[in-house]
Each structure stands twice: as C-alpha cells, then as structure tokens.
Amino acid sequence: MTDFTQHDLSSAPEKSRPLLEKAQKEMGMIPALYSVMAEAPGVLEAYQRLHELFLASSFDAAEKTVVWQAINVEHDCEYCVAVHTAVAGMMKVDPAITQALRDQQPLEDDRLELLRQTTLAIVRDRGRPDPAVVEHFLEAGFSRQQLLDIVLGVSQKILSNYVNHLADTPIDDAFKRHAWTKGAADTDAAA
C-alpha cells in the first residue's frame, strides 16, 4: 500500500497537533490510526467528532459494539477489530458477544442479532436495505433514531476502515493481543 507517516506531536501538521494532544491526554497514547490520520487534519477531526457523537448515540455499550464490529468485520479491518475488541472489554460488553462478532456467528440475543443483520444490510446495500429489513427493525422496538444512528456508526467506521486499508496501519502494541484475521477462528475475546 501507500507509505504513510505515523505522525507524532513533533511531525504532525500544525492543525493536527491539538487533536493528537487530546488523544494523548484522553487515552494515554496516540493510536496508530490517529497518527496516520494526522496527515489530513480534517480527517482526524471528523473521525474524533464522529466517535464522540456515536458514543452519545441511542445505543448502549453492547449495541455500539455490535454496530462497530459488524462493520469492521464486514470491511475486513484487522486494525479496528483488534481495537474494538479491547474497547468492548473496557465497556464491560459480554465477551461472548465480541467473540461471535469476530467469528461472524449469529448472536444469541435476538435483539442484538437483528441489530447486526440490519447494520450489515445497510452496509452491503449501500444505505438502501430492503424495506422489509427496516420494517422488521422498527417492529422489533428499535426506533428511527436508532436506524439513523447505525448510519452514524457506518460513517465513523468508513473513515477508520478505509484509512487503515490505504495505510496498512500497524496494530498498536496495546491491542496486539486482540489481533484478528477474517475467516480465522479465534478465541481472543474470551481471553
């Protein structure tokens, strides 16, 4: 792939420096994804803001994990699957949920499985899922806001997944134990 600089506070474009400082302060590190995104300050800023907005969405921690990981796995983003496995752990999401998502297996919870299937339909059909999918989602008790919140999650993940594909972003040491490869059965999330 294209060689991208992994910027730090000294090499980043001026407009990216406060965004990297924010990450350093909040996370205790500058994730490799952010160091690559720093090349384009608007991309880094958009990603951070979309992340904040999705965290404040109508979904609980397990539901956020389902949306994020369904997209990450569908897009074959090894970096984001590893990171969101760690994030799910920090958010106290049941490891069985994370493992099923990593393995592309149906979720035991019917509501979460419906959320996963609807998210995948939105991604695969480029925002034009079959009307029956949307109707089933709403009839199951999800709201129109939540339907749109899936689109917010897709927007966030497209930014990170596509940047990681272009840059072949290396997985940070903090997340290497959660490494994932599509199609490989693994037992990471239960570890």
Automatic annotation (TrEMBL):
InterPro entries: AhpD-like. It comes from the Bacteria. PANTHER family: CMD DOMAIN-CONTAINING PROTEIN, SI:CH211-175M2.5. This is Carboxymuconolactone decarboxylase family protein.
